[in-house]
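Support case: user asked for a sample of complex input and structure output to validate their parser. Sending the pair below.
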Amino acid sequence: SQQGEEDPQALSIQEGENATMNCSYKTSINNLQWYRQNSGRGLVHLILIRSNEREKHSGRLRVTLDTSKKSSSLLITASRAADTASYFCATDGGSSNTGKLIFGQGTTLQVKP
Amino acid sequence: KAGVTQTPRYLIKTRGQQVTLSCSPISGHRSVSWYQQTPGQGLQFLFEYFSETQRNKGNFPGRFSGRQFSNSRSEMNVSTLELGDSALYLCASGEDNQETQYFGPGTRLLVL
């Protein structure tokens, strides 16, 4: 794919555990974003990290970015059943303000109550 | 502010027909992007409109087209539908010079 891979493709954990998903990309970037999608619905923006940032937090979310390895990870701490969804990373492919996001294949997360 | 809205939410068409999907962005957003989501290809960028002009285009055949109106509402059209066009079509809007996109609920198109 244009974007690269996300791993794992699927993840199943118990409520209260942490979930980590990884994303790799192929091009240079200005920023990388993570989105959540519940069961074939629209995507919800979670967090954006810029290429000059290494780590960012938002509530129970922690995102890291390693531009030398062209990879990012999303950590969800103390997961809840409501976190069950598909998670996608997306980059701008190095071009700003084009309205184009390049998505990974996504990780499907199941959180068991 | 109201979120991005898309109509219709579900659509069934037959091969060879054409279809028009509509998207209303968040008030004040002038950028509207369209994506196709399928199990096999994932999320793929179709095109983006900004102030009524197509600013960027993905790798889709000419059967896929779009336009944007002066109120920033956008439509996309698919002509001569093929079975492979069955997908979830997502619209997203964004503010000027901001990278974050806000997605609508999508239109699920089934081509029989």
